[in-house]
Amino acid sequence: MHVREPLLNWAKIKDLRPTQMTVGMREVVEKRKRWREHKDKKRPEFLAKHMIPVILGPKDNHYVIDHHHLTRALLEEGQAEVMISVVAKLNMLDREAFWIFLDNRSWCHPYDQNGARRSFEDIPSSIADLRDDPFRSLAGEVRRLGGCSKETVPFSEFVWADFFRRRIKRKTVENDFSTAAERALRLAKTPEADYLPGWCGPVAE
C-alpha cells in the first residue's frame, strides 16, 4: 500500500495571524535562547520538528492556533519562514462565522493582558503585535518547576495565569519574578487550584 508523505508547507512569519492577544515575553526570551543554541545547519531540522499548526481562514490567511511563543521568538531572531501544518480549511467562511467557529472549538483566546474578554476585532493581525502578559510567563515557570503538568487542554496555561492573577500582585510579578514564582508554586499545590488542568497537588487519602 502506498503511504502518502505529509505535505510540508512554508510560510512567512510576518504573514501569519495569531488567534490570541498575548504571550508571556519571558517565555519568548527563553525560546530565543534555545534557538540560538542550534547551529545553522541544525535549524532546518528544528523547524521540521516544530511545525506551526494553522487554520486556513478568510482571504486565505493562515491563523496560528498553537506555538505562538515559538513563532514570536523566531520572528524576533530574524527567522523569515517556518513550516506550517494546516489543521483545517475554513477559508469559505466569512470573518464573523470564522471567529465564532474558532471560539467554539477553543481554537482562539480573545483575552487581553489583564485577563479580560475582548472582541474578536481586538485580536492583532500580526505575531509582532502580541502583547506581554507577565502572568502567562509565571504560569509557564510554575509548570517548569513541577507545580503542574503540561496538558493538551487548549490555552491551559492562560487558565493558570488567571488563577495567579487574582492572587499575586502584578507589580510583584514584574519587579520580583523569583518571589512571585515561589508564591505561585505554593498556590499551585493548594486544594483551591485542584480544578485547573494539570493540577498535581497532594491528594487526601
Q: Short summary of the structure?
A:
By secondary structure, the protein is an alpha/beta fold.
Please provide a written account of the structure.
The chain is built from eight helices and six strands. The chain is α/β, with parallel strands linked by helices. It folds into two domains: about 10-130, Conserved hypothetical protein from pyrococcus furiosus pfu- 392566-001, ParB domain, CATH 3.90.1530; about 135-195, Orthogonal Bundle (Helicase, Ruva Protein, domain 3), CATH 1.10.8. Residues about 1-5 have low confidence and may be disordered.
- Main pleated sheet: 4 strands, mixed
Strand order of the largest sheet: 1-5-3-4
| H and E order | EEHHEEHEHEHHHH
- Cα radius of gyration in angstroms: 18 Å
